[in-house]
Write a structure and sequence with these properties.
Blueprint: E1 4-10, H1 18-29, E2 33-39, H2 45-51, E3 58-61, E4 75-76, H3 78-83, E5 88-92, E6 95-99, H4 102-112, E7 121-124, H5 128-139, E8 144-148, H6 153-166, E9 172-176, E10 186-189, H7 206-209, E11 214-217, H8 226-233, E12 237-239, H9 241-257, H10 263-279
Parallel strand pairs: 1-2, 1-3, 4-6, 7-8, 7-10, 8-9, 10-11, 11-12
Antiparallel strand pairs: 3-5, 5-6
Helix pairs in contact: 1-9, 1-10, 4-5, 4-9, 9-10
Length: 280
């Protein structure tokens, strides 16, 4: 077959939006390529890496392989090393190189929404998305607070410790999600609260949302969550997770082929991807 060959790997993988998004990004960039999805059981990763993955021009990585793929790669970029996580791999003359494009997707999404990164930043949750965003913000010298449920306090403490071990100058702290007081310059939701089908749920109360100058919600289904709608109704800047999802895919294409995309094209693709998600 002519052209280049890419894929997304994970388990399970049937829900992924990656083929839909990347095929349209290839069209926008004028790159002749195909893109498929590969459901790989965790115990089969090494075998599939040797027989299938190493023959591709590149691939995306999702749960549960973001950490377990690392030992098979020849090198990692700085952000992937910091996070200890990979979601994009490029195969080339320099071997297989791992990247994490989630932080870049977040930065591009907030920039496109006109959100300035600075001041008091509160991250709701302490999972994988929170981790990748936090490392990027801490790397930029920004102070962070994690707000979590009582059962996640231990995990949040370990994440703060991990960040300060790798970035000794980082200033990070954590507390309970129902005890956020005072003004917040940027509230970042990385929890699944508000995700379809529970579209009326919000991770914090209206009073807390009303004290936020800007809001980013990593949830991308629906396109506009109850949190984003409430923030906009308050006059705050707000953006949902579909923008981050599409921008991180665009960053993967930059690593693969040097492709660059206009803000307007990404915004249109966000709407198309949201419609596709709704149809499913």
């Amino acid at each position: 077959m002519s052209g280049k060959h890419y894929a997304v790997i994970g388990h399970p993988i049937g829900h992924t939006m990656s083929p839909f998004i990347h095929k349209r990004l290839f069209e926008l960039a004028g790159v002749e390529a195909d893109y498929t999805q590969l459901d790989i059981f965790p115990e089969k990763l090494g075998e599939e890496y040797k027989s299938v993955l190493s023959a591709l021009d590149g691939y995306n990585v999702t749960i549960p392989h973001k950490q377990s793929i690392i030992p098979y790669l020849d090198s990692l970029d700085e952000k992937a090393r910091l996070c200890g996580s990979v979601n994009t791999v490029r195969n080339g003359e320099d071997g297989s190189r791992g990247f994490t494009t989630d932080p870049d997707g977040f930065i591009r999404a907030t920039e496109a929404a006109g959100i300035t990164l600075g001041g008091r930043i509160v991250i709701l949750g302490c999972g994988g998305a929170a981790r990748s965003i936090a490392f990027e913000l801490a790397r930029r010298g920004l102070e962070l607070e994690f707000a979590v449920r009582p059962q996640s306090v231990g995990k949040a403490g370990l994440l703060c410790l991990n960040i300060t071990r790798k970035l000794p100058d980082a200033v990070v702290s954590f507390g309970l999600i129902n005890q956020i007081i005072g003004m917040v310059d940027l509230l970042i939701n990385t929890t699944p609260v508000g995700m379809y089908p529970n579209v009326d749920a919000q991770p914090v109360n209206r009073c807390a949302i009303g004290r936020c100058a800007a809001v980013f919600d990593a949830v991308y289904n629906p396109l506009e969550t109850a949190l984003v709608r409430q923030a906009k109704a308050n006059g705050s800047l707000a953006v949902g997770g579909m923008s981050m999802l599409v921008w991180q895919a665009a960053e993967a294409q930059r690593h693969w082929n040097g492709s660059e995309f206009a803000k307007e094209d990404i915004e249109k693709l966000c709407v198309l991807a949201s419609r596709e998600l709704a149809n499913r």
